[in-house]
């Protein structure tokens, strides 16, 4: 190699080495185990350098530096590999990895897109979301700040939960029968026949009695004096469930007269109204008693089925024990758009700072539609699962409304236009829908926080799926830890790169500049997890209250103690060996503590006596 060319090569190598050293000093080295070009471009734009994983451009990483330098040009893969070679001995300060990977470079606390928590409250799984639903009631969440709206659900692989589900299914079937009769009360003559009816009228009375018991339990808590409720055997329940199914599904007639059935309908309507005041989620139910079964740790609609038979549900779970199935009440009365089911994909970002956990919510979202018209008699996945991974397998049904998009997606602006055509109040989106997103997600995060590993600079982007009820109230369905951010349609091709770009603004830019813009991400809640109470360690425990005499006062004589250095008066203030009755009568608790210490070591005696002599000590 000519000397001039050799000098040029050394100069270029020094330039790259200096760039690498500057990147290390300024903590601007990143590594990515997943191919998100938007993230990569955003970091390179900010002056960061990329450290490649071993399996990226593996055939080039084996080449010597001179060869890489020979073909390196600004921005090409040879330069990328060359820079990565220079960074080999330095840690990465931004790591984009998968959940199953081991956390690297923990000693430098890099920005890492992975937050780990206990499986019992890992809300990115169906099982963990149920755990959060159970925990949220213990957190005393403030009204208007955090509230979880989630369909009731049970873990079928746990016996206790399975029993609770069976009880719920039976009670829900009673409610379903009454709703069915209420919905058909103007055509009730088609459902009754006093002479030739095949279903006994006791089926309605059985359901009414069940609703009465539910109402009594919700209004007055159980007490020891309450009368025991009559026990219904499994055989009686099975017979009742079968009769309800024959009425609702097969339209078999009830052997009852018109006046009696109308009287029961009126009573049932009143009881349902009382129950729904306490149980908002019951307003989402219809009369089909449908339940959706989901594998506890899978996503993208894999293994999901919908059933309305108790035996079928239990048998399905028993046949798939390895999948840890959960069962969730299916929303039979969701908000529909042109008679088609949809859900809303919303993005949430959690960031762990030095002493706080921040929850960020994206102000943009999009809708995902089913390719088929909504129908509760057709339980196929193409009708009820709106995931893009499911719907892309099916062609749009010709009976579906042509005003819906062929891509099965709407952006937020299109949904707002639709709401205007339906005469929905202008502020419903912001005041009810978006506010509901915020309350649900804050509640979920707070419920899981006690069992979350809080590592500084860790963050995670989540895809949150919501449905709306008929009054535009959001209902949380599930949360995904690895949402699909690919440009699968025109809608996602616009919003997904924006979300990733704004994610970098929050995680990187804001941490280095408190005035940095955060794009469409809005911080909706912040928790200080390093809270230290402000107390003075020099002061003792101060207990204030009112003196109460629980037993007659007695004089307590302290046994004499020999001491050459100190007199008893230094401890008691009296030579007689008797403590002041004023301080001994304040509390039985402190008197008993004193008595237990009498006769023990001098140290314990002095500590107890000194505390009891302190004015006001021992007051309750």
UniProtKB/TrEMBL annotation:
The family database entries (InterPro entries) matched by this protein are listed as: TTL/TTLL_fam, TTLL_monoglycylase
Q: Which Gene3D superfamilies match?
A: ATP-grasp fold, B domain
Composition bias of kind Basic and acidic residues appears in: 569-580
Region spans: Disordered = 559-580
Query: Which Pfam families does UniProt cross-reference here?
Result: TTL
Q: Name one GO cellular component term.
A: microtubule cytoskeleton
What's an example of a GO molecular-function annotation for this chain? protein-glycine ligase activity, initiating
Give the SUPFAM superfamilies listed for this entry: Glutathione synthetase ATP-binding domain-like
Write the signal peptide boundaries: none
**One GO process term, biological-process aspect:** cilium movement
UniProt keywords, alphabetically:
ATP-binding, Cytoplasm, Ligase, Nucleotide-binding
Q: Where in the cell is it found?
A: Cytoplasm
For this entry, the protein name equals Tubulin glycylase 3B
Q: Which gene encodes it?
A: 106089707
